[in-house]
Each structure stands twice: as structure tokens, then as C-alpha cells.
Amino acid sequence: MVVPNSTAPRACEFHQGLVKSMRPADTILTYNYDCLIDHTLKANGNDKWSPRYGYGFNLGGHGANLVGDGFWNPQSPAKKNKSMLVLKLHGSLHFKVSDPESSQPRITLKERPYTRQHGNLKFTILAPEWAKPYDRGIFRQIWRLAGKAIHGAKNLVFIGYSIPTSDLHAASLFRVNLRKNSLRSLVIVNPDRGARYRTREVLRKGITPETRILVFDALKEFLDVDRSLWDSG
Question: Is the pTM of this model over 0.90?
Fold first, then answer.
């Protein structure tokens, strides 16, 4: 939902709780185009989030490839190499890329993702179709970093994502990059039993008898528990 002036969505207490519980070393993988998490990080991401360093873009010489990130800064943005990552695997309504096929395009982070600016409503996303160009342009870099994050993960939290059978790329991302017997904990926040089962099947390679598996029906339930319950450090 968008506020009347369409410059930002209404605050979501659950997103606020999620951001406040996160640490600079954490990585978020999201398939959502919307900018709710981005606005929440702007409001609540002090000292752990920087839109300049957190999206995984190739900034080029002197960082000239990215503009517009100042608007999305929290009051106290994280320093270089100190920001959590937010990898938007299908793009975002506030990403405006000069050449989606280029490995080093000029990227603008739009201030008003949901309204026309200068007569157009341009953004860069991967459209909901079977053949998506994951291996080109900015998405090649974003998906590479996502694979690296999964490979190094010891704790995984799935919130509302069901790994649909129609999205072979999503399932392959986890199956290929997850290390064998690597998970100390797996958290699944989803009321759908079928989705829970699919998630565990896709991640089977990383699960051991010692892996702590926690299941929650709702995000509120997950946020109500202390992070130490699932975070092995």
C-alpha cells in the first residue's frame, strides 16, 4: 500500500521488526519488485545498511556507475564492507539501468518508484516469464553474489517464500550453491505445509540430524522469538 503522495509505502511493523533484528553481516535475498524493504532500511538501517554498497552493484571507477543512492541512505549509513546485503534477484521498481545488458551500466536509484518522473515510469525488473536473462547485465552480478551468500550460509531463514516448482532457477540457485551438511539452523516462516515440505526438499543437501529446524506460521511468531534460538553465530 502507498501513502497518498506515493513517495513511500505505509510503515510495516513486521518489516521494521525484521530490519531491527538484522546485523551488518546478514544477507537478504528477495524476489519482490516493491520497495517496502528499501524504505524500511532507510528508516531503520542505521550503521548496518548502505544503498551504495548493499545492492551488490558494480560501482565502477570512483563509484561513478551509481547515482541517487543518497536519497535511500539511513541517517547513519554503513561504511564500505560494513553493510548488510539486499540482493533483489528479480530487480526493483526503483532500479533504473541505462543498459540492462551491460556489465557496467549507469544505475539510478529512483526517489519515487511508484510515480512517473519526467514523463515515464521506467524501472528494471525481470518480467514474470519463463525465460529470464539471469546471466546478463546487473543480474549476473546479483545472482553470483546470491550464490556466494548461500554457499557460505550456516543459518537460513525463509519468510513466505515457497520455492515454486515453476521457478527452476530459484530451486537451482539453492541446490547448486548450498554446501553439503552445512546448515546449523533452518527457519521456515510459512503457513503452507506444502511450501514447507518443498523448502526442506530443495535444501536437503545442507541438512544434517544436528540441524535445528524451526517452523512458524506467521512472521509475528518468528519476530517474537530471540534470535539466539536459531542463530548459531
Answer: no
Is there a contact between 198 and 167 (Cβ–Cβ < 8 Å)?
Answer: no
Summarised one tens digit per residue, pLDDT across range 145-195 is: 999 999 999 999 999 988 887 778 888 999 999 999 999 999 999 999 999
Q: What's the CA dihedral at 88, 146, 166, 197 to 10 degrees?
A: -110
Long-range contacts of 20-23 (CB under 8 A, 24+ apart): 20/44, 21/223, 21/227, 22/48, 22/84, 23/48, 23/84
Task: For 210-223, write each residue's pLDDT tens digit.
Answer: 999 999 999 999 99
Q: How many helices (H) and strands (E) does the chain have?
A: 6, 10
Percent of the chain predicted with pLDDT > 90: 63
How far, in whole angstroms, is CA 176 from its chain's centroid? 19
